[in-house]
Write a structure and sequence with these properties.
about 180 residues, alpha/beta, 3-stranded parallel beta sheet, two-stranded antiparallel ribbon, globular, binds zinc ion
Amino acid sequence: MKPLTEKYGISGAIISAVDLLRGIGVYAGLEAVRVPGATGYIDTDYLGKARKALEILKDRDFVFVHVEAPDEMGHEGNAEGKIRSIEEFDEKVVGTVLDGLRGTEPFRVMVLSDHPTPISLKTHVNDPSPFVVLSSEGDNLRNGKSFSEKVAQKSGILVLPGFMLMEHFLGDWRGVIGKENR
Ligand SMILES: [Zn+2]
């Protein structure tokens, strides 16, 4: 595979406790950075991951932050744990990164899951993953005020094949979102 770093002339890193993700990151040309306390589980150091991401962005263009906990809770059928891990991710990872990026414009942030792991099935399903983008340049992609599968479905935006999402995110983003979705 052609590394993202080569394709887009960017530098970058991946933060994940999961070897599979770290390996894909290395193939993509990213440095696989370790965060002490990153466990791949619900007790992971969410804040530590976000702080490390901000540190990386000081001298690099791109960072991929992966949190495995909501998927693990899905496999366990643990609804309470899944809600808690998503809340922790929202507050401590997304919140910390967005706070830290203020004053460092321009930037673009995308939040998404790699796949759904419904509590009712305890395994991965092939449904589309919702994604949301915040851009300091105003070319945001959002539909309503909340972020969920239902809200995403209503947007009518579907990126196929899925790998094109990253191509668009790093490349010509405006083409995908269309004026009406900004
Ligand atoms: Zn899984």
